Automatic annotation (TrEMBL):
Superkingdom classification of source: Eukaryota
Domain Clu: from-to ranges: 361-671
Biased composition (Low complexity): 13-32
Bias type Polar residues, positions: 700-715
Protein's UniProt name: Clustered mitochondria protein isoform X3
Keywords: Cytoplasm, TPR repeat
Classification of source organism: Eukaryota, Viridiplantae, Streptophyta, Embryophyta, Tracheophyta
Species annotation: Ziziphus jujuba
SUPFAM superfamilies: Hypothetical protein c14orf129, hspc210, TPR-like
Length: 1226
């Protein structure tokens, strides 16, 4: 919301700021994405390394930038026309606040602010009255916008909070809110804030806060983190805030519910309260107030007590009956008010922490916590109607969006609804996996159960090795209306065709097996011998692809074409797909509602002209071609989407497009069995089309289409040069033969999504051949251009991922599927840190799938032992626990055996074992007990060979960076372990007590704000051109819009803060840069994780800014934290660690501690020479820094020895230095 309060603006100054994730603090290009844009933040460190103090260099400021206050960026916004106007608020306690409101703000926005303000945070049940200057009074409804009621732009308007009547729901919400306020558990203090506070306290205690104080803390344990990564695990987590106890307990009384005769006079609830003084009170909550009744013992006495304490809020009553409560509650509010506003905001789906506090905190009695836990709602509303997620989502999509303000309101509504849906879906999926929610088809096999809870459909992504079971069920005619990928639509199609001529067996055969088997029409026998590892991957891939396809069509945003809300939840080895309910599916609507696509793998295709026109419009935006296909009877249909998609008209008369597993074409490099869902990424399609469009424009501008001109293209860097040299003739021929209308549009090349599939294509052979050639060229572009360019960027540090997550994001951003990671590893063997990163990611991904199979086959009471045993086998040297059990029970986990088709059709596979009904039907002995270190690593190596075409060396088991691999695996499967020192050289380093939690891992389709994204992209261009004032305005506008759409806790908001900090830094406003960095760091810690590489780089950037303010001691504290985080995510051997060492050395050098500076510089030089080689530019930077350090020490001889080597490196890298100099102004 745009509203702000004028109170609480003054904080602790710059010391209260924390870092922002300007991803490249270090002199290497540390970010795996947008690295070029972030280099401008890292270069000042290089200037500092050259001996020029940052503060001195930054004196050239631009006044127009410095005058803009970051805090008031919302008022500067132009795109949304967000002009703010002052409106006073009279609270229930007769205090007055002043808000800055925009006419487009809703009443819900005002309520949310009042809920966050310290003066009004405990008021929950009230009406808002708007008084205008003409004397009229308006009652505000929650969903109204202020502009709909009155014009606040003319001034003289005020708001008044008037107590409203409680009801059963609102009074319970009031009690929960009061409990929440009394706890500081929702206050998430940034570690940077703690560092600043510690520094401030040290400065206050010191009599002369100069070098003496600094000397005591300057010898930071930066190198120590590198030497003992395991021992530093406990340093990651900050100790939780000390709770301020306000009351002993507030619980619902056992007098509840009120007797009927008391209900008639307004009693709603009874509470038992024990104050800090030890007094016990029984409190009555009525429709109007709370008061202390006269009850004692076991008999209710509803009469007010003799003291006659009463108040309209529970907090107000507690302040009257307890002086200690009043004092403690004031401290709580002061603590919240003194913290950064972002630290009080809750984040959507916070990242799972892979480390938990050690020693484990004592679990103490808490009656309120027990009450909440015993109410098993699994995300649904306890009182009132359940939310209709689909109707909410589609109604929001139908909001007008013709102007910027309307688009902001629409995006905000979509974000809110989708976020709430994902939150409810996660809770429901946990209930489904824990068997707490009954299925709607209990007579079917458990693996095919469907669940409806809280108006959400839940279905399991079923493994391919359940094929035999499904075929048996088909023969028995037991399975009806079943689907693997998207249960709502499949269940709908089942009821839709229930009375048609299509046999149930055919429907079930397709539903149970067709979607996940490879090219069943072309190779009918392939499915019987399909490897279970691959078919499991196909199942997981189909769910992933469906989610990506849903996102793509949502972003295409075609009017009249709708998609369901969707989320994927991985928990305890299971994958659950959650979707909003398709209107009409639960009512058994059997009308002809399937208008488009096929439900039986193309045997029968439905088609509707109106639906087709909408799909064609979306296809143009997704680079999909309108094409013709045959159905099973030979009829020809014109489609613009995959054959297996389903266009359905719901009972709400909306057109829904479902089953979007292939919205991009097949990868022509993967056409064998089990590769049905190996499709190209949309980023690659976009890059390929841009490359071809640029090539065509260059060809047309010259008479002979000189291929060398393509190298000047600004859009595709050097990628066009290769493709024009090798394929120019083919491309020109393709342009001539393709339909003219395909290239007249700006979308460029269009792809047939049904190429290289089992579906029968219509049309002439030339057209089909041209479509196939298009897909082949795109696939070749991936392997011949994009992949080599990506490997080159990795080698030159243009892209510098730190861990598996950032490596995956870098691959995806370049349009490369993770299945190509083996080729990336092969291309980076000469650089140890890259080869280690790629091979470790392959190891973790292979182990993850084996581990999920173990979890699926493990009983609830064995989860802890199973996890610890698996980890001991993985990281230690552990033998099987139960050697007497036949090894046949775990052979199905070996991809090699599955690949060769050795599994007997009559045996239960790992997928079937997890689904056996009751405990009596399950195995007496868990299969995890049969795993040993040898067998596990053999399985991992075989899985890597099959899945990633990568041969893991025999010594990989001993050479992996164990802490980084543990972190990566825990994050991928949702495990939390104790943050203690582990002896990873022992045979069994883990104990069952070390496993603290198992959490769900979520993928979702929460929409992004395209408006803000475009502003950020434009701002980055302005920043690169040195237009700081214009860039600041654009980033401020994007920040303001995102604040309104997503709230502050979002990764894109952090990006805006990062760029704002960059602009302010280059403009010389260090305090402003620190302020923005603090915001960005808080967001990164909350949204990405405490040890995410972006968070580490944020600490490094914050150190840079503090150093610019000559607060070197505080800067070094932040650098120490950055080194700790880097040691956990990447390990000690990474160029970014070496670059951070250089930055630390320069800071030591500036305060005269040359010996310490030299120690860090020498360590950085060793790392760069070992990791990058003596000829790399980063090695030259180390020599240059050493030369300056020796010169400062007076060691001119050593300085001159380093200089010739540097000069040779400069000559070698002169072109690169010219480019960097032009970009950074060096």
């Amino acid at each position: 919301m745009a509203g702000k309060s004028n109170k609480g603006r003054n904080r602790r100054g710059s010391n209260n700021a924390a870092t922002n994730s300007s991803e490249s603090v270090v002199s290497s290009n540390a970010s795996n994405k947008e690295s070029k844009d972030n280099l401008s933040a890292s270069e000042p460190i290089k200037d500092d390394a050259n001996g020029v103090p940052v503060a001195v260099e930054s004196t050239d400021t631009q006044p127009e930038v410095k005058e803009v206050e970051p805090e008031n960026s919302a008022s500067q916004t132009k795109q949304g026309d967000l002009h703010l106007f002052p409106v006073s608020v009279k609270t229930q306690s007769s205090e007055k606040l002043e808000l800055q409101l925009n006419p487009g703000d809703s009443v819900m926005d005002i309520r949310q602010f009042l809920l966050d303000a310290p003066e009004t945070c405990f008021f929950t049940c009230y009406d808002l009255l708007l008084h205008t200057k003409d004397g009229s009074t308006h009652h505000l409804e929650d969903f109204n916008e202020i502009s709909e009621v009155a014009d606040i732009t003319s001034g003289g308007c005020s708001l008044e909070m008037v107590p409203a009547l409680y009801d059963d729901r609102s009074i319970r919400a009031h009690v929960y809110r009061t409990r929440e306020l009394l706890s500081l558990s929702t206050l998430h203090a940034s570690v940077s804030t703690s560092l600043a506070l510690q520094h401030e306290m040290a400065q206050n205690k010191a009599t002369s806060p100069g070098d003496t104080t600094k000397t005591d803390v300057l010898e930071l344990d930066g190198l120590g983190f590198m030497e003992d990564v395991t021992g530093s695990l406990g340093n990651l987590l900050s100790s939780s805030l000390k709770e301020i106890k306000c009351v002993e307990s507030i619980v619902f009384s056992s007098f509840n519910p009120p007797p009927s005769y008391r209900r008639l006079v307004g009693d709603l609830i009874y509470l038992d309260v024990v104050t800090l003084e030890g007094n016990k009170f029984c409190i009555t909550g009525t429709t109007k107030m709370f008061y202390v009744n006269s009850s004692t013992g076991n008999t209710l006495d509803p009469r007010p007590s003799k003291t006659n304490f009463e108040a309209t809020t529970l907090v107000g009553l507690l302040q009257k009956i307890s002086s200690k409560f009043k004092k403690a509650f004031r401290e709580v509010l002061e603590r919240r008010a003194s913290s950064h506003p972002f630290e009080n905001v809750q984040s959507l789906l916070p990242p799972n922490s892979w480390l938990g506090l050690y020693p484990v905190p004592d679990h103490k009695r808490d009656a309120a916590r027990a009450e909440d836990a015993l109410i098993l709602s699994y995300g649904s509303e306890l009182i009132g109607m359940q939310r209709d997620w689909n109707e909410e989502l589609q109604s929001c999509r139908e909001f007008p969006h013709t102007n910027p303000q309307e688009r902001i309101l629409r995006d905000r509504a979509l974000y809110k609804v989708t976020s709430d849906f994902v939150d409810a879906a996660v809770s429901g999926a946990i209930g489904v996996i824990n068997r707490c929610i009954p299925p709607i088809n209990p007579t079917d096999p458990e693996c095919f159960h469907m669940y409806v809870h809280n108006n959400i459909f839940f279905s399991f992504a079923v493994d391919g090795d359940l094929e035999q079971l499904s075929k048996k069920c088909v023969s028995d005619n037991k399975l009806k209306n079943v689907s693997n990928d998207s249960l709502p639509e499949k269940a709908f199609s089942g009821s839709l065709h229930g009375d048609s001529g299509l046999p149930n067996g055919e429907k079930c055969d397709r539903s149970c097996t067709g979607e996940h088997n490879s090219v069943t029409e072309l190779a009918p026998d392939a499915s019987a011998e399909a490897p279970s590892a691959e078919t499991e991957q196909a199942t997981y891939a189909s769910a992933n692809n469906d989610l990506k396809g849903t996102k793509a069509y949502q972003e295409a945003d075609v009017p009249g074409l709708y998609n369901l809300a969707m989320a994927i939840i991985d928990y305890r080895g299971h994958r659950v797909v959650a979707q909003s309910v398709l209107p009409g599916i639960l009512q058994g609507d059997k009308s002809e509602s399937l208008l488009y696509g096929s439900v039986d793998n193309g045997k029968k295709i439905n088609w509707n002209e109106d639906f087709h026109l909408k799909v064609v419009e979306a296809a143009k935006r997704l680079h999909l071609k309108e094409h013709t296909v045959h159905d099973g009877s030979g009829n020809v249909f014109k489609l613009a989407a995959p054959v297996e998609c389903k266009g359905i008209v719901g009972s709400d008369d909306r057109h829904y497009l479902l089953d979007l597993m292939r919205v991009t074409p097949r990868d022509a490099n993967y056409t064998g069995p089990g590769s049905r869902f190996c499709i190209l990424r949309p980023e690659l399609i976009t890059a390929f089309c841009q490359a071809k469009a640029t090539e065509r424009s260059k060809t047309k501008s010259t008479s002979q289409g000189d291929a060398h001109t393509a190298s000047n293209s600004p859009n595709v860097d050097g990628e066009i040069q290769d493709i024009t040299k090798e394929e120019n003739t083919e491309d020109v021929q393709e342009c001539a033969s393709a339909p003219a209308e395909s290239f007249e549009s700006q979308e460029g090349i269009l792809f047939n999504p049904n190429i290289f599939t089992e579906f029968k294509l219509a049309g002439n052979h030339e057209e089909i051949a041209a479509d196939e050639e298009n897909v082949r060229k795109a696939s070749s572009y991936l392997t011949d251009v994009v992949l080599p360019k990506f490997i080159q960027d990795l080698c030159t540090l243009e892209v510098s991922p730190m861990d598996g997550q950032t490596l995956t994001e870098a691959l995806h951003a370049h349009g490369i599927n993770v299945r190509y990671i083996g080729k990336v590893a092969d291309g980076t063997r000469h650089l140890p840190h890259l080869w280690d990163l790629c091979s470790s990611e392959i190891v973790v991904r292979s182990a993850k799938h084996i581990f999920k199979a173990v979890l699926r086959d493990t009983e609830d009471h064995d989860l802890g032992p199973a996890i610890s045993h698996f980890f001991n086998c993985f990281f230690g040297s552990c033998s099987a626990v139960a050697s007497k059990v036949s090894a046949n029970s775990v052979q199905s986990r070996t991809p090699k055996k599955d690949q060769m088709g050795h599994q007997s059709p009559g045996k239960h596979s790992r997928g079937q074992a997890r689904w056996k009904g009751g405990a009596s039907a399950r195995k007496n002995q868990s299969s995890y007990m049969n795993i040993s270190s040898e067998s596990l690593w053999l399985d991992i190596q075989e899985f890597a060979r099959v899945k990633y075409q990568f041969e893991l060396p025999e010594h990989v088991r001993t050479q992996i960076k164990k802490i980084s691999v543990i972190r990566n695996l825990c994050q991928k499967v949702g495990i939390t372990i104790a943050a203690r020192r582990y002896d990873l050289n022992s045979t069994a380093p883990f104990q069952t007590s070390d496993v603290l939690n198992l959490q769900p891992v979520v993928k979702h389709s929460v929409p992004v704000c395209s408006e803000a994204k475009d502003l950020v992209e434009t701002g980055k261009v302005q920043l690169a051109e040195g237009m700081l004032s214009e860039a600041y305005t654009l980033f401020s506008e994007a920040f303001s819009i995102l604040q309104q759409v997503t709230g502050p806790m979002h990764r894109e908001v952090a990006n805006c803060c990062r760029y704002l900090a960059m602009v302010l830094y280059h403009a010389g406003d260090m305090a402003g840069a620190i302020m923005q960095q603090h915001k960005e760091l808080i967001i990164n810690e909350r949204c990405l994780g405490l040890d995410h590489p972006d968070t580490a780089h944020s600490y490094g950037n914050m150190a840079l800014f503090y150093h610019g303010l000559n607060q070197t001691e505080l800067a070094l504290r932040h650098m120490s934290r950055a080194l700790l985080l880097l040691s956990l995510s990447s390990g000690p051997d990474h160029p970014d660690v070496a670059a951070t060492f250089i930055n630390v050395a320069m800071m030591y050098q500036d305060i005269g501690k040359m010996n310490t500076a030299l120690r860090y510089l020498q360590e950085a030089l060793k790392k760069n020479e070992r990791l990058l080689g003596e000829e790399h530019i980063q090695t030259a930077v180390c020599y240059h820094a050493l030369a300056i350090a020796f010169n400062c020490m007076g060691a001119f001889k050593l300085s001159h020895q380093a200089s010739p080597f540097l000069e040779s490196k400069i000559r070698l890298h002169r072109p690169s230095l010219h480019v960097m100099g032009a970009k950074w102004g060096v």
